[in-house]
Amino acid sequence: MNRIKVLIDWILPTYWLKITAIIMLGILTGFIILFMYLLRAQTYLANDPSACMNCHVMAPYYATWLHSSHGRDATCNDCHVPHQNFVKYWMFKGTDGMHHVYKLVTRQERNAIIASDGTREVIMGNCVRCHKQLTQEFVKDGRSDYMMTKIGEGKACWDCHRMVPHTQSRSLSATPGAIVPYPDSPSPEWLEKLFSKKQN
Amino acid sequence: MAKKLKAWQGWLIYGGSLVIVFVLGMIVTSLMERRSEVGSIFNNRRTPMSGIVTQNEKFKADFPNEYETWKATGNTDFKSEYNGNEANDDLESHPAEVILWAGYAFSRDYDSPRGHYHAIEDMRNTLRTGTPFTREENIQPGTCWTCKSPDVPRYMKEHGIANFYSAKWSDLGAEIVNPIGCSDCHDPADMKLRISRPALIEAFQRQGRDITKASQQEMRTLVCAQCHVEYFFKGDGKYLTFPWDKGLTVENIEAYYDSLNYFDYINPLSRTPILKAQHPGYETTRMGIHAQRGVSCADCHMPYKSEGGIKYSDHQIMSPLAHIDRTCQTCHRQDAEVLRQNVYDRQRKCEEIRARLEDELTKAHLEAQFAWNHGATEAEMKPVLQYIRQSQWRWDFGVASHGASFHAPQEITRILSNGLEKAMLARLVIAKVVAKHGFTDEIPLPDVSTKEKAQKYIGLDMNKLNADKKRFIETVIPKWINEAKSKGRLVQEI
Asked: pTM of the full predicted structure?
């Protein structure tokens, strides 16, 4: 305890410096919470596919999934997040999610979003996970994983099953007019009403 | 012993925190801007709309793909083994229906249904709406229009729901002019799915369910359930009501009607109070395997259509058999022709029982007429009438939804089989009744084997009915259309 006190006293010697530091910390925390609120970070803890609609660029992927054969039986996480164990699940979800945020905030997302190698490994693993009997007993493709297919040892599931589930044209403009659950406006309704009254 | 802050340290802390807060603010702003982009999706309309927009043409500029495919519901080019999108004279192909519906407008005219685009036109042209040259000659209430047009919710909003129902059919002729279209299922402001007809909302409320909590997938079925359901006009106000208070099975709905002592009409031949079933599409589909697996109406009847780089929901609502590659084969891996035969197999089995039931039920009606003519008493005929009512209810419920033989084949076969049993029980009792009155031979039945013969037998003057209708269509309908155009309700004539 004493060491920490000494450290704090060395960095922030005066009373006023300590006050300033506390205020700065408050502002920083505030911004982080605001960021998380705008990000709708709480939705990522659950499994609801509408969480992926926090970013409108995901609309075609949501719409094609909903209209596909997987629409009723698999959520986004079922395919795009590894399910081997708790740690793998949350580590991948977290880092992948942060990657998404980075790309979105810096406006670097491609018009046709393509899965990275890491994601492809996860996806193919999940294909095999649900369709285990089909891919390992009836045929043999499920005995390989994605990295093996990269060096020619077998085929990836989607080399043949191209339309499942996001179909072949995968650009951001692929589904005009799709009815998908966009998130509501982040400003609360009571605030909106306040302003609209004034504009009247 | 307070340490003194050196100037450069102070500036460092000041500058550093300034930079950190600024950068964080920029990141938050960037995120907020990306989120606000969602607004551009809904603010991109060439024709911004709100409320209820009844002229479907107005949606063409913003939703050309959906508009063009919706318009294609006017096509009459597809025929499957049992259905299709052409209007065929069903009384010609099933003359027994004339006898079963004797005393009811359906015995005059019944065509197989065709696309939504023809809703208004077909309602005006059918003999079932009669020829109300004057208001008193109306044979149907305004309620009949309910499922035919987005003008209906508009009128309901302007004049009240009960006033819409209690009006006469011809009162609304110049008001209800646009065929089933966009505003029936969509909120024009953001095109989200929404329920526009009160009857479904009220039916849900009576069951203690809140329809506004339905998920998107459920809505893709519920917008269809606004109209493709069994219904009746309750009371003198002809208030459109769904008879689901006791449940959605054929037996539950019958129990509900029985508790009200309700009947749609009395068949003059057998003097039975008959229940007419109207297209219980929603109720029967719920009992089939597809609905039980979460498949909605739109999944098969409005599948995705790919054109170039985009895809959109095909708004040409029609038989999924016309596009097996987009409908069945989204989930099923079998060959298209194998799947087609799978569908027909199920329909054929239902058809087998239907044919037997129609035959027996027709005989029951005609034999009952014979019994009445040979001295049968009310007390003697009471069980006969009960059986005939139950049999015809099951017959009608089983055949009125044209897709049910595929949507829920086991349920339809069950319903039709029960109906067949009731018809035979009726005939059994009739045989005993006529024997009591001294008749023990095979009851002679009239030849009603064609539509013409049957309609003549039940006393319909088809020449007059057809001639009157022709005159009605040529004189009254154009007046309605002109009035609607002059008031801006109708943009484009159908």
From this structure: 0.87
